[in-house]
Amino acid sequence: MHETDMTKALIMTVKDWWLAQPDKPQVSQVHLTVGKFTCVEPASLEFAFQVQTRHTFLANAELIIRETPLIAFCHPCQQEYRPEIGIQYACPICHSPMEDIRSGRELKIDRIEYNSQVESYYAPNL
Ligand SMILES: [Zn+2]
């Protein structure tokens, strides 16, 4: 199952970071960006996260998912459009096939919020 493996990878990434922290902070929130075009179901991801973090250092952490829409760019028309996932992957004006995806394929950790002495966060992709 897609979401289960993805969650495993996500937890491993967070754990690597956490293990490197001298004070082992309490993680409160893990923020994710999930593109619509990854076909990952946020609800399934949340469920997998809950199940897999049980009795771990992430047991009290909340998974917060921000979904990004699928946005493509049409070169002949020089404009962005929003393809309809599973229905229509071409420019609505000139019908050129979708080739340049600008958004919607992301799957990354935005940041991790945790409590140490002060409220802090870690942003692995910045
Ligand atoms: Zn076009």
TrEMBL record:
One of its GO terms (biological process) is protein maturation. One of its GO terms (molecular function) is nickel cation binding. Zn(2+) binds at C74, C77, C91, C94. InterPro entries: Hydgase_Ni_incorp_HypA/HybF_CS, HypA/HybF. Keywords: Metal-binding, Nickel, Zinc. Ni(2+) binds at H2. The keyword Glycoprotein does not apply. It holds the Pfam family HypA. Belongs to the HypA/HybF family. Involved in the maturation of [NiFe] hydrogenases. Required for nickel insertion into the metal center of the hydrogenase. This is Hydrogenase maturation factor HypA. It comes from Merismopedia glauca CCAP 1448/3. The lineage of its organism: Bacteria, Bacillati, Cyanobacteriota, Cyanophyceae, Synechococcales.
